[in-house]
Design brief:
The chain is α/β, with parallel strands linked by helices. Helices cover about 35% and strands about 20% of the residues. The strands form two sheets. The protein has a six-stranded parallel beta sheet. The chain has a three-stranded mixed beta sheet with strand order 2-1-3, covered by helices on one side. Helix 7 links the parallel strand 7 and strand 8.
Amino acid sequence: MEEAVGAGVRIMGAVVSPELARTSRGTELHAVLASRAVTVQEVTATVFGPLADTDSPQGIIAIVEPRRWTVEAIPVDGSATLLVIDGVQDPGNVGTLLRTAFALGAGATIVLRGTADVWGPKTLRAAMGATFRHPVIGLDDAAFITWARRHEVTLLATASDGEPLTRVMGKGEEGGGKGVIAIIVGNEGAGIRPHLNAIAAKRVAIPLAQGAESLNVAVAAGILLYEVSHGR
């Protein structure tokens, strides 16, 4: 909620319980909402409990009007780095991916079919407010492929048997050192779908220690976004 306020999204109303007033941050948040003429309904903890989606709510539930980004919000000039999520089903992972993309300066995140709802409660909590500031655009496969080709986006598909990213980035334009680069991360079990692998310029990987099978998808995305952003 603090991030929603800071991002300037429209807050249509809120319900608060006595729990919110137990911290100075909660009291301050309540005051900010009141100063912005947001309708705030105070209820007892007994009434509030069944409304909350978590076992230990912090005392506030709000209705906000999220920003809806279109494909025009995706940066296609200069050396932008993008994240593409293909069929990641765990909402916690999706939220963490959005948080990571925002924190590491990705220009936008493109969400393809089969991915968990970016506006679901678990996803929103895991994103920690990034959803209110970071462009997130849902596209079907055909629209994404057409868009990527039109703007000559270099697609890097993550794969356990891919080439080490640091080696790819060291190859200059062949590896996508210039222009827009989009890193595609895939489903936790199945990986990136074959037709997306087929159009990628390179399949890339993070070298792991012997005996390590894999990384969490959000952790891997963070490493790859950092390497691309700093390896141009």
